[in-house]
Amino acid sequence: WNEIIELFRAGMPLRKHRCRFKSYERCFKASEAVDCLHELLGSNQNFGPEVTRDQTVKLLKKFLKNHVIEDIKGRWGKEDFEDDGRLYRFPPSSPLKSYPKKPSCGKEVIKFPDWNEPKAGRSQEQIPVKSVALNSEMWYKRHSIAIGEVPACKLVFRRELTQTNIEEIWKSMTLSRLQKVLGLDSLDEVLDTKLVNSKHIVQNVYNVNKQGIVILEDKSKELPHWILSAMKCLANGPSCSDLKQPTYSGFERDVFKTIVDYFGQMKEPLLTFHFFDIFVSVLGLLQKPSKAIEALQISCLLLPPENRKRLQLLVRMMARISLNQDLPPLSESVRTRILMVQAFSRCILCSKDEIDLDELLAAKLVSFLMDNYQEILSVPSALKSSIEDHVVHLQRVQIKYAGADSDAPLPPPSFCHQASTGEFEYQRATGSQEPLAALLEEIVTNKEISVKDKKKKLKQFQKSYPEVYRVRFPTPETEAMLFPEKTKQKPPILMWALKKPFQPFHRTRSFRM
């Protein structure tokens, strides 16, 4: 939303127009706005040339409703924008939406349980310690540490990991890897980690068949048999041997409509409302396909198992239908691939509030899913091996020697370096303040706007971002230097008096009674 608004405000030409014998500065026609925005959306990597002119008009209707634009009379709030010659302009206030803040509970750092602690009732002093003496040569070969006699050693018994412990390890390391792949300092802005179910991750990894499709424990959540038969019929095309194909014309279209109706009546998309932001954030990685595939691999592990299975079956069917040359056309006017995206994109991804751009974002993501579904909907092998190795390490009994390097605690085997609280706060502050400081500097140095407009914009900026404004103008004196006062010249009183001498009031006859 914010990206498109910024591009539109920067790229929309503004000029003088006349309407009903009046002239209006810095405005544009509705048709000019459609032309400009349609071209911007078509060249943007997150949307592409598939965007139609009608979709552009619908988006401009949303812009008018949300006060991104207003008519020349200052009216907005309705979706009555049309592709005609009416005049519109940009409002002086910023139309950008602030990102919703997650609750404070999402800021908790995911910690690994400490299984190095001994079991209750058995202290470290009670662990048997045996002193061993070796010659220096064997010591060097076996341990590669300082030559000398073996110091006292201790057997460190690990706590037995429960299934809950293992599930929490999977959740922690999976989210850590996802954060690194997305290149974020924190997942708080795109995901509430409290909503991630660790059991779902483990089930999606291990409860699968030979094809990698999830096996559900609760059979009542399976797709109905008739829907599976219909999907199999279209995916395999006319060559489906285990089904008796009818002979009437239009059979495939009827089957396709049945599948579309079934998935269209779902109350929540397959990628769920909770994970909408995390999947939308992957769209920025589509220029790097390997990164985008890994990010989607991990994100799909967070889904409920029944959602993941339905997604696997649906996307596989869509991809096979798109490539099936023997299947009769399912539409007279739309190509099969585009028809697949249009029919199923909303049941795969949409937001709870159905905000603007949902349709375009979903179409972009679904197209990428269809092209790479075999990799995306499989279990990431590197992540699985790393987590399994870590679990084995935690369960292994270790020998620790007093004074040796093994006394130092092992760092948690995470995929990214853990920042301190101070570093995190600094990154969060600088990450958001730097672009705001650049925007403030642009307002200050802009010589094209009048002094009155500049003061108005600075006042709005100070009200919205007081901390950033205080850094640029720490004292009233620094702010006053931006607008030096002009010396006012006193009018020449004497000259004026000479040019216009005082004339006394003369009573005339008209005032007499």
From TrEMBL:
SMART domains: DEP (SM00049). Residues 185-377 form the Rho-GAP domain. It holds the Pfam family DEP. Signal peptide: none annotated. Keywords: GTPase activation. The keyword Coiled coil does not apply. It comes from the Eukaryota. InterPro entries: DEP_dom, Rho_GTPase_activation_prot, RhoGAP_dom, WH-like_DNA-bd_sf, WH_DNA-bd_sf. The keyword Nucleus does not apply. Transmembrane segments: none annotated. CDD domains: RhoGAP_BRCC3-like. This is DEP domain-containing protein 1B. The lineage of its organism: Eukaryota, Metazoa, Chordata, Craniata, Vertebrata.
